[in-house]
Specification:
single chain; 66 residues; alpha+beta; two-stranded antiparallel ribbon
Length: 66
């Protein structure tokens, strides 16, 4: 049976554990429709398009609502 020859130090133990809870920044890309920055593989929050289709209806800025 494999047994460690030396005790693992607190530093090495914590470095190993740190990779599990690592926070990574989301992949931000420009929207092909409106060029607003958005998270990839998600509906654009500003224009509501995804893969060239209008998924959600967004009101155009400056349009008067009746």
């Amino acid at each position: 049976m494999a047994v460690p020859k030396r005790r693992t130090t607190r530093s090495k133990r914590n470095m190993r554990r740190a990779n599990h809870d690592k926070v990574v920044a989301p992949n931000l890309i420009p929207c092909p429709k409106c060029s607003e920055v958005m998270v990839s593989h998600r509906v654009c929050p500003s224009c509501g398009h995804y893969k060239g289709r209008a998924i959600t209806k967004k009101a155009v800025a400056g349009a008067a609502e009746s």
